[in-house]
Fold these 4 entries.
Entry 1:
Amino acid sequence: MLLAHDDTPAGSTAPAVVLLHAGVADRRMWDSVTPALRHAYRVVRPDLRGYGDTPLPPEEYADADDVAALLDHLGVDDAAVVGASLGGRVALELAARHPARVRELVLLCPGLRVPEQTPAAQAFDDAEEALLAAGDIEGVVRLNVTTWLGPDAALSAREALAAMQRHALEVQLAAGEAERADGVGPRPLRVDVDPARVAVPALVVSGAHDLDHFRAVAAHLAATIPGAEHVELSWAAHLPALERPAAVVSLLLDALRADPDVHRP
């Protein structure tokens, strides 16, 4: 399956940057980030399966393989890969399964199950599951917007996240209903990632207002990935690219320009 995506500017020979969205969003979460990058980089923004414009068919798949296949389709040999939350996990999986495709990693509040869930993160999961079991989709949307966006997020960011989360729930719940009806559903492959084997420059970013689990994940990755840098944003929760896009653009440009393997604009 070819992931729905934006390629800006299409066919450019500039160094490629892949932006991987969070699990409560889709490629639209990068709308305020992309314009400042595309003057110097080829920006590729996919929708992972079950998000945005990419369906969730009943078959086995690995998100990292989908991203590698998209790069093949676009004729992109390698890229700096920026991942937010779920996208951070997929970026690490891409580096593990297809290391030659990744020049650099920027992990924004990456989502992993290591270290173990904290009580606060488990409480969020329990609350979300209870709302889903009750069929309260709007309650799920409100819970996610409140949890993942910090105090600096504008109303427009909150509305955008609500729309993306609502759409993802519609797609994923429909896939779940189809699975219950015919017994066949999406089968994501489990990909084991050893951060100690990541062999590219990596910047790990955490948010001071994020759940403690994700802050612990960021600290763990920064301590485990060889040579990784760790930055904690005092103003951010879980989705800094939506909370302060201009600040994230500045962070990304600094990271990209500092990498000797990525041509300076």
Entry 2:
Amino acid sequence: MLPPLGLCRQGEHLVCRLHKSLYGLKQASRNWFAKFTNALQDAGFVQSLADYSLFTRYHDNSFTIILIYVDDIVITGNDPKAIQSLKDFLHARFRIKDLGNLKYFLGIEVARSKKGIFISQRKYALDILDDAGLLGARPYSFPMEQTLRLNPTDGKPLQDPTRYRRLVGRLIYLTVTRPDLSFTVHVLSRFMHEPHQPHLDAALRVLRYLKGSPGQGILFPTTNNLKLKAFCDSDWASCPTTGDLSQVIVLSLVIL
């Protein structure tokens, strides 16, 4: 980093040597995450190779999971004693504030009841509708017309594709709690490189579908059995858009 004003001398090219990271510097977030990672590894946690912000610890029948985003931390597990032990460990290493049960995290709303845990993105969905000016729009029953076939060359290219790309990007994040949008968003994401007007019209239809149920989400029941099911199918009649063989693999987590 450059030295502060007053330390510059004519003919000299001085820089500061950083001994300790300060909040707001470019190195701060990296150094903070490295320090936090070392602390968790000392506590027996293993960093995920798929998501470096996810850490897990298994011991006998007990497991604890911790997720970190900048300086926000989410802790879960099946052993309350292990969770409390982790909190005590973090309190000893860092100055942290326990905010209690998770209610809101990165646009995801969490509600607890006797039936289980319900997650949704209601506020996030309403914000998307508000930005698009469709809060008062007439809702649709389906996110996409069943007979609709979108092609890369349909209609006129958008003069400013930024709006389409931003909208589809927000819809992709919305599929975290809205798996009913997965197929439609998958189709729309094919045209991110050069969107045309029909593609934008199809994306706006998804918003009209959201208007009818912005608070829809996923319920994880208190008592349930989780089963992972996989389906595979091939369409040898070729894809109507690309003319290629279409193969689909679907993985679903079934809550019984």
Entry 3:
Amino acid sequence: MTTDPHAKPSWRTRAVTALLRAGGQRKLLATPEGVHAEIAKRDRRDTEVRPPASLRKRATVTREDLDGWPVYRITPNDVTTDVAVVFLHGGGFFREIVGAHWAFAARLAAAVPAECVVPIYPLVPHGRAAEMVPTTAAILARTIERRGTGSTVVMGNSAGGGLALAAAQTLRDRGGPQPSRLVLISPWLDMTMSDPAQAEIEPTDPLHLRPGLVEIGRRYADRLAPEDPRVSPLFGRLEGLPPITAFAGTREIFVTDTRTLARRAADAHVPIDYHEAPNLPHNYALFPAPEGRAAREIMVDACRAPLSAGRR
């Protein structure tokens, strides 16, 4: 679904977009060397990742370790949850989960209401597709086993969206249970960055440049080919996957791949609910703005949908 192509972003979205552009990510993604320097700086910090303390005031937060990854469960207080959402954060596989991700997970858990499962996966160069995708699939399978096929959603933004799709494909190929729905927010689905239409969009994207993204993809792929579906799930089969809800903005270079996903899902007879927002940037669906709030309402309904259908 695409709304009016001439629609202007709200002032809040314009403000967030300006902050993103001023943040300097485009500069570090201009060259492979910029990526290397950012990874080295990140590794020197070597800080433990944990939810902010404020989160525990409105939710119960527990931790367990699965296959060596910390996995946090966020459950709203004093509410029965019939749905589990496995949320895979973004950050381009080279940046850690941030406060906005935790806040989104907590608000989603309260709104559905749902138990939100947040794996903390390793980042490149320590995190590689050959290990990360099977581990994510195992965490998803365990959640489905615990909560049920009809009440488990897997959701991811940006790099986490690609990881979510790859994990679902892996479960399908193994004959394992599928989640009830995939929710993909500005997903990064093709590490080759080879769609020719991206060259036209790139100057308007406030966050991304292809040279750095290709280098991240190379490190994430490691010994695998960039076209391997574990690395770039857009190259994998879509048949046998659950319904998909997807979001992308026309001012992000990943929109080309989300469009391809929508076409291929329809061809594979996979129900697809695609929301393409004109003149909006990457991850707009998470912004504290009217466009973000509207997108999050759709996400909440998508998480509730399988449960509602089962009660009819």
Entry 4:
Amino acid sequence: MPVWDEVHPATISVQRMRAGDHCFVSYGDDESNWDVLTTFAWTGLARGEKVMVFAAPQVSDDEVWSRLEADSPSMARVRARGQLVLTSMRSLIRPDVGFTPERQWQRIREETALSGRQGYTGLRTFIDMHWVPDLDADIDVMMHRESHAGHLFTDGSYSEICAYDRRWFDEDVLARMCRAHPVNLLTRLGELRAVHGDGSLRLIGEADLATGEQFGAAVGEALTRTADARKLVVDLTQLSFLSVRCADDLLRLVRAADGHDRVEVRCESGQLRVLRALGEHGSARLVLTGMGRRC
């Protein structure tokens, strides 16, 4: 995992995106990119948003539709009514030929306003950044765009993912672009990331059968690391999925942590119900704190 990706303070899974988020994601293979795009698009459609997809210029529209399950009745309906649109950066900025942040911002504001007039709850765009070499855009100009685009997102009616191919962009560019975005996305579906802090453990992504061993190891490591302090905060609120097995493993590890006086587990309402159903009262040191969902 690149350091610039690991240390971003606001990393979430694509399923946890909120309206108004401006997100960076990187990919090292095409399949993980398609997975993120598909999840992002279908989530927006389900929320009543208009979705615009700016695929890599070398990818045909037919392939994009195929990846988005073009033969499904639901996709046929949203395509017919214009709720899902395939376009390109070249088309967006016309009649301009060269890219400028100002022209792109203007067009995004226009498209956001149009989506509202069309009755949608907002606009979300997935922008594959392969358009940068296609339009021969300057990287420093792009950096300015990414770091000064906050005005597009203030009212929550516009959301955006900027997807960077790690096989094409230099590490320095990726690091700078990641830092320029308020939100960083996990690179693939099904991923679990553990962020160890001073007296805390934050878990992001999916805790399920595939990542259960990693989940248990992260909790165990955090308990060992905080044994001298005798207290630990475990934050589950950025998990998009918590299996019953992983929840049970968490309770078992906390019950066995005799060196701790207090283990606070912060969780959203669904996670709270699961933990209580499994019997959180098995340990006096365990404190469950209900928190609101991020999305």
